[in-house]
Design goal:
The complex is a heterodimer of chains A (101) and B (227). The longest helix of chain A is centred in the N-terminal third of the chain and has 23 residues, at 2-24. The termini of chain A are far apart. In chain A, helix 3 packs antiparallel against helix 4 (64-79) and helix 4 runs antiparallel to helix 5 (82-99). Chain A is extended. Chain A has 101 residues and is an all-alpha fold. Chain A has five helices and no strands. Chain B starts with a helix and ends with a helix. In chain B, helix 3 (38-48) packs antiparallel against helix 9 (125-149) and helix 8 (108-119) packs antiparallel against helix 9 (125-149). By secondary structure, chain B is mainly α. Chain B contains twelve helices and no strands. Chain B is globular. Classes of the chains: A mainly alpha (101), B mainly alpha (227). At the A-B interface, helix 1, helix 2, helix 3, helix 4 and helix 5 of A face helix 3, helix 4, helix 5, helix 6 and helix 7 of B.
Chain lengths: 101, 227
């Protein structure tokens, strides 16, 4: 039973982070803020990708994951398609793993 | 109002769900190792629905008490503040209950899908809801499955399945890269996040990198006097 109380606490903390800005920014926003927010998705996505590619264990590592992301970047740039990007990146991951690179 | 958008939102998540499922299976397996029953592992996913927070909490479960667990969840999820802020303009005018509902299951993946649609002028709250629901189902079901299968699943990282998320995000990133400023922002934020991952523990650095990177975009825009 203890666990469920902790889960509820975690859910509340999570909901707080998800709801606060959506609720607070309901009104007309200053244009400076609007312009800033335009760059948020790019920045967040890049901030999630780069460490996963170059430091999967918390230390710098040019390995399979870096090559997979490099290949994925090329596919993403050419096709602009999410599924092809994933498949292209994974294909290189598996290929390089089999080849022992 | 528009169940077609809702269905499209759910369908869009199928491109990302292999990654969610791999991650969810791993979570279930880990939860068992920490001493959760399959039902407890499932309940955590159903109630909390925040993958990186759940993983972080599992890794410290035995060592700390309730309050640190809740505070850690808060910190790991701070990036949702930024996501909420950037999606808020598109939700203006919606009924407050709709906003509350969309916030409930907003995940990294469903947010990325939804805002990509909004930016291209096609988004809708029904699509957003569909994406939320699709990811929610994939995450909670695979968590239960992983917990039931226990240790039978080999390390998903061996097959690079942990890379499905970053690669999917990469595919989405191109939708936002329309000019040099955007590219500069991506490089700056990615570099900062890498630096953070190398130098600091935890996941807080994604938020800082996101804020500084996007702030730099604004600065560049002002300095160069164009979009």
């Amino acid at each position: 039973m203890d666990k469920f109380i902790i889960f509820l606490g975690m859910a509340l903390a999570t909901y707080l982070t998800r709801y606060t800005m959506i609720a607070a920014l309901g009104q007309e926003m200053p244009s400076l803020l609007q312009h800033w927010l335009r760059y948020v998705p790019v920045a967040l996505l890049a901030a999630l990708i780069v460490p996963a590619a170059l430091a999967p264990q918390g230390c710098l590592e040019i390995g399979l994951r870096a090559w997979a992301v490099l290949a994925g970047s090329l596919v993403a740039w050419r096709t602009r398609n999410v599924l092809w990007t994933i498949l292209g990146g994974l294909a290189v991951f598996w290929l390089f793993r089999i080849l022992g690179i | 109002m528009n169940d077609k958008d809702f269905k499209q939102g759910i369908l869009a998540t199928t491109a990302l769900s292999p990654g969610v499922v791999a991650f969810g299976l791993l979570y279930g397996v880990m939860a068992r190792q920490v001493g959760f029953s399959p039902w407890e592992a499932w309940a955590m996913s159903l109630i909390v629905h925040a993958g990186s927070a759940q993983f972080t909490i599992l890794s410290m479960w035995a060592a700390v008490g309730t309050l640190p667990i809740i505070l850690t969840t808060l910190v790991v999820n701070l990036r949702h503040l930024l996501m909420g802020a950037s999606v808020a303009p598109y939700l203006r005018g919606l009924h407050p209950l709709w906003k509350a509902l969309l916030a409930l299951w907003m995940s990294d993946e469903s947010y990325a899908l939804a805002i990509a649609e909004y930016r291209q002028g096609r988004g809708s709250h029904w699509y957003f809801l569909g994406a939320n629901v699709g990811i929610y189902l994939a995450w909670s079901t695979s968590g239960l499955l992983g917990a039931l299968l226990g240790a039978a699943i080999p390390d998903p990282g061996r097959y690079g399945l942990d890379m499905v998320f970053p690669l999917g995000f990469l595919g989405l990133l191109t939708a936002f890269l329309q000019d040099r400023t955007g590219a500069a922002v991506a490089l700056a934020a990615g570099g900062l996040a890498l630096l953070g991952a190398l130098l600091l523990p935890g996941q807080g650095t994604v938020v800082v990198a996101g804020m500084l990177g996007s702030g730099m975009g604004l600065l560049l825009e002002r300095v160069m006097g164009r979009k």
